[in-house]
Amino acid sequence: MTTTVSTGPAAGGVPAPPTSGGDPVRGVNRLFAVRELGIGLALVLLIAITTVVNPRFLSGQSRKDLMLGATILVVLAVGQTIVIITRNVDLSVGSILGLAAFATGKLFLAVPGAPIAVALLAGIALGALCGIVNGALIAVARVPALVVTLGTLYVFRGLDFSWAAGQQINAADLPTNFKNMGTATVLTVPVLALFAVAVLLLAGFYLRSYRGGRELYAIGSDPAAARLHGIPVGRRVFGALVVSGALAGLAGVLYAARFGTLDAAAGTGIELQVVAAVVVGGVAIFGGSGSVYGAALGALLLSTIGGALPVLRVAPFWQQTVVGALILAAIGLDRALAARVARRLRGRKARDA
Description:
By secondary structure, this protein is an all-alpha fold. It has 13 helices and 2 strands; from the N terminus they run ααααααββααααααα. The protein is globular.
């Protein structure tokens, strides 16, 4: 059987049927591109207002802190986007991050001279192993992703606490070159942020340019139709969960490099921030549309909100209120766009008929 996956341009990441004229499809993709543009404008506006209130907000150190604050969230958001596009979710990323971060500390305690590349590969491998567990239960055993990853969130965190047994790894226990990676810059850009940029570009290129990436959108749009077209739905979903786990493992290593002090509680609760960043970034929670670039913008926006509100002298509890309002607005906008897309496609079919 020949598999054909017809999708629109990846700017908005929305699948679209083939069309001769292409006008409705281009219009649909413009809608999603505008959504991401709106996120970028909101980010610029927030930075501008905060800078007017306090010009030091964009000082060299402040810019570095903002980029470092968003780095781990961006890496996790990229993996989460790949999963959510398939109409699934991975709530275990925070626990995987914590497990990989503590494993990194233990690795350097056991082998003080271990190369940084070994630590990175070990963290990615550990995360991928956790992703394999999630993927097997979701794609093979057909258990809902929400149930599986909620369970593994606690399982992986429990393993972390059992392994740590109350132990805390301090920055003084880690190699100097590894700790320097958490503070080093290249042309004023933190090295850790370059990892996030590399992950973002690779994931974006794959989703846009490779058949497997486009099939993920087709699965999220309609899993049953994707199966009828010969798309290996189970294998693609399994792969998405493994990638999400691997990126969470990478984020754990970056977390260890940035903070140095590690215990079993590392990354607790960050999974909710990740899902929030992805949804705010324009990725449809029901799957089938969105892009890793929008998710990265969402992560940057949430991180900037966290840094800007104290400068604007806004009470800390309002941060959660603002994030919650952004999530509701993003979901509402997504449903409105979906309805408009449906109307456009119905109009096209009526004209063709």
